[in-house]
Amino acid sequence: MSEEMVQTDAPGYLPQPLRSVEDTGLHLAFLTDLVLKVMYFAGVASGYEIAERIRLPFPGVVENALEFLKRELMCEVKGTGGLGEGSFQYSVTSKGASRAREVLELTTYVGPAPVPLDDYCRAIKAQGIKGITVRPTGMRQALSDLVLSDRTFDRIGPAINSGRSVFLYGPPGNGKTMIAEAVGRMVLGREMLMPYAVEVDGEIIKVFDEVSHQLLEQASVMPGAGSLKRFPDPRWMRVRRPSIVTGGELTLKNLDLIWNEATRFYEAPHQMKANGGILLIDDFGRQQVRPRDLLNRWIVPLEKKVDYLTLHTGRKIEIPFEVLIVFATNMDPKDLVDEAFLRRIPHKIHVVDPTPDEFRDIFRRRCVEKNIPYDEASLVYLMQEHFVKPRRKLRAVHPRDILDQLLDLAAYLGTEPRMTKDLIDRAASAYFVDI
Question: Model-level pTM?
């Protein structure tokens, strides 16, 4: 994505180099338990392989954890695969295996070492969504697939630049979700650093997942790669800014830490995974919880830019709320929200039905996409017979859907897909339902 489309003034975040256990912000006991679990499942692993698995450097960090485990007779050296202690092959002893099983009862987490909560909070604040700026040229490029009125177009850019929240409302089928997805693509134009997991009070919160975050590069912790100079703390991953979509399945439970009794660690909620990016709440008002209950959950985060999550121990933790929230609904706003909530959403965009000229433009574009010859007279016939006479409203989605019906009919009949009156009548009668 070009710099014309998205610019950022955010200072970014660069973690400090890891030269010792203290630099990780984690207790040695926490690290030794993590190393022990890696060896327990691996059977035999070299020091470098353990370092790669938990995303920490071997010198000064993993080697210290292994030295502690050797002194406590929980692991032993089985051989060597090369020069240096990092090449030694380690395995757990019977005492180490017993300890590993005890630790696994507390949490089964085995993976990249987490970062402390304070480090996570500093990183997210430094990479906040507020630093992203879009310009009209970039907006036209990102929204080139959509036909929007100037009024709607001119409201989207300032809404993104605000870094706060957007309320898209209007009749169904006019591109609210497509607008939100285009906004997401603009936000995704910049990268950020995201940790795999966060540690607080010995508890682990898994933040990174392959669905929500697109990994750009994974720094190596193996020696000789030269990457530690370039990427001093491999627990942080370069990702595209997240764009997460949730719809009718959203519940209040999804907005707090999700404790898994089987694995004994937490999954981060949607808004924490979306930090630094965008969270689209699609079909707002059709969730399994009352809209007002859902909105009340957002009041403090939207106003204070912080959110409070609850551990299963009862302790509440504070995390940054650096998320561009986009609510998209085809329901009447007055049936969903009250004035107090609307005050906290500075940008409200009404996505209206297309005008006849806009409808014609959309239809022409969709014909090009679907390789169907455009015919002006046939479109006039369609609009007159199937919109004007039955007093049916124009929707931006109609050209795509009607042309899809036409393609299906042409394939069935073994004819070329063309905008003939017969195919148009058949497509429209199959698509529309008069209620």
Answer: 0.86
Residue 50 CA to residue 36 CA, distance in Å, equals 10
DSSP labels for 39-95? HHHHSSEEHHHHHHHHT--IIIIIHHHHHHHHHTTSEEEEEESSSSGGGEEEEE-HH
Q: What are the respective helix, strand and coil percentages of the chain, to the nearest 5?
A: 45, 20, 40
Q: What domains sit in the chain, N to C, each tagged with a CATH number? A: 27-112 (1.10.10.10), 119-350 (3.40.50.300), 356-431 (1.10.8)
96's tokens: 């180490």
Two structure tokens written together for 234: 């491999």
Collapsing DSSP to helix, strand or coil, 178 comes out as: helix
Q: How far apart are CA 190 and CA 196, in angstroms?
A: 19
pLDDT above 60 (res 9): no
Q: Which two tokens stand for residue 215?
A: 């990994």
User: Over the stretch 127-138, which tens digit does the pLDDT of each residue have?
Assistant: 987 766 788 887
Residues in the chain: 435
Residue (of 60, 344, 77) closest to 223 by Cα position: 60
Q: What's the CA gap between 27 and 35, in Å, rounded?
A: 13
Give, rounded to a whole angstrom, the gap between the first and last alpha carbons of the chain.
Answer: 44
63-71 vs 28-42: helix axis angle to the nearest 10? 80
Report pLDDT for 83.
Answer: 78
Which ranges in 354-397 belong to alpha helices (H)? 356-369, 376-383
Q: How many CA atoms lie within 13 A of 210 on its CB side?
A: 0
Tokens of 353: 């039905």
Side chain identity at residue 427, one-letter code: A
Strand order through the sheet with 191-195: 191-195, 236-240, 215-217
What pLDDT is recorded for position 345? Answer: 81
Buried b (16+ CB within 10 A) or exposed e, 79-88: eeeeeebbbb
Residue 106 confidence (pLDDT): 95
Q: Residue 363, Cβ neighbours under 10 Å: how many? A: 24
Mean pLDDT along residues 7-25? 79
The distance of Cα 406 from the centroid of its chain, to the nearest Å, equals 36
Token code pair at residue 216: 């750009």
Q: Is the pLDDT of residue 94 over 50?
A: yes
* Cβ(311)–Cβ(258) below 8 Å: no
Do residues 206 and 266 touch, judged by C-beta distance below 8 A? yes
Residue 121 exposed, middle or buried by CB count within 10 Å (0-12, 13-18, 19+): middle
